[in-house]
Amino acid sequence: MNNILIYSDLHINQSSLKECILILEEIGMLANKYNCDTLINLGDTFDGLKPSSKELDVFATFINRLGNKKHIILAADSHESTTQEESILNHYGILSDNVQVVKEYKDGNHLYCGHFSIKESTCNYDAKLSKEDFKNYLYVFLGHIHSYQLIKPNIVHLGSCRYINFDEAKDKQKIVALVTDYNTETEKVHFMKLKSPIPMVQIELSKNDQNKGIEDGVLAKKDVPTSSCVKSEGEIEAYLDQLDPKTKVKVKIQNFESFRQFLPLVNRYSNKFSLFKYETNFTVISDINKEVGQTELISFKESFMNWLKNQKIDEKIKEILLKEINA
User: Fold this and answer.
1) How many whole angstroms separate alpha carbon 144 and alpha carbon 116?
2) Rounded Cα gap, residues 62 and 28, in angstroms
3) Cis omega (within 30 of 0) on the bond before 51?
């Protein structure tokens, strides 16, 4: 092996075919650009045990384009495999003699590649192994965890090569690893940002975020004023308008007041973004004990009733609505 390109957790599924095609094309171009003779896939190529024919075709096209000039190593201990022997990935050996399906990949004490978490992983899923079990390897690359994590001194969770869940919205980028001059004195590992993945943004709206606007300072990063409360629709619009239309956006609404203010924007933005969700299944914090620095959790129903009682609405209409809520 001379140069190696390593990637992980593409999770090909029906709803993301176009994005997956673009990512695989970019990975193929990087492999050719840097003269990689080996590509290692750390697992979860597909999102389920029984991929559709279209999903299978996407990865088959990728294998075909790489041809027989490159060694392709596929980790089978992942979503698309019941066992190593019963993996859908085994069929790709028909396309190329250079496809090797493995549960884990080892090259002496130099390189280890697998698909699982360890005790030191951010999400360890009841892991049994720890970094001590891999201390004799120079490099260890692991899939399964979707966000990049370095576990010193020698272990890396490479992370998924596209945004799969909104838990990953905090990830600044998705990457692949390039090992140049493998197993020589000039060997070096490079982490390369992918351009194809569609970014994800999660916005959290709360009437209490008067100085933050959108939680975690997301607005500030986009240079949108955050001094006013989220009550201003214009502030939210200004933020959303700056996003790439391909962005996958999820709005998490923490109370009824924010929901009421955001609702007029739903139709306008639901057609703009690649994926647009808003979540209203929330828990509301009441102001009952605010003066003593305590909060009390109340239901959505109670929150709506409290809001309704405080509004300047015709009393007869208000009475009807309250009866409907209590029905």
Assistant:
1) 5
2) 7
3) no
Q: Give whole-number Cα distances, 294 to 200, 253, 327, in Å.
A: 34, 21, 31
Classify strands 4-7 and 38-41 as parallel, antiparallel or unpaired: parallel
DSSP for 225-258, please give it: --SS-TT-HHHHHHHHHTS-TT-EEEEEE-SHHH
How many beta carbons lie within 10 A of that of residue 215, not counting itself?
16
Instruction: Classify residue 120 by its DSSP letter.
Output: T
Question: In the chain, what are the domain boundaries?
Answer: 4-193, 200-326
Question: What pLDDT, on the 0 to 100 scale, is given for residue 285?
Answer: 46
Model confidence pTM above 0.70: yes
Quick one: tokens of 265?
Answer: 């924007």
The owner of tokens 């596929």 is: 74
Name the nearest CA neighbour of 326 among 297, 296, 302: 302
Provide the token pair at 140.
Answer: 């260890």
The amino acid present at 262, given as its one-letter code, is: F
Of the candidates 170, 199, 210, 184, the one whose C-alpha atom is nearest the C-alpha of residue 23 is: 199
Torsion-angle region of 222 (φ positive above 0: left; ψ -120 to 50: alpha; else: beta): alpha
Q: d(Cα 16, Cα 93) in Å, to the nearest integer?
A: 25
Ramachandran sector of residue 101 (left: φ over 0; alpha: ψ -120 to 50; beta: rest): beta
Percent helix / strand / coil, the chain, rounded to 5: 35, 25, 45
Q: List all residues 6 or more positions away from 126 whose beta carbon is below 8 Å from its beta carbon.
A: none
Cα–Cα distance for residue pair 260/243, rounded to 1 Å: 23
Q: With respect to CATH, is domain 4-193 assigned 3.60.21.10?
A: yes
What is the torsional sign of CA 227, 261, 167, 55? negative
Over the chain (327 residues), what is each successive 10-residue block's mean pLDDT? 94 95 98 96 90 94 88 82 71 82 93 96 89 97 96 97 94 97 96 96 71 39 34 75 91 80 86 86 48 51 74 79 73
Cβ count within 10 A of residue 250: 18
Question: Which candidate, 110, 34, 116, places its Cα nearest to that of 75?
Answer: 116
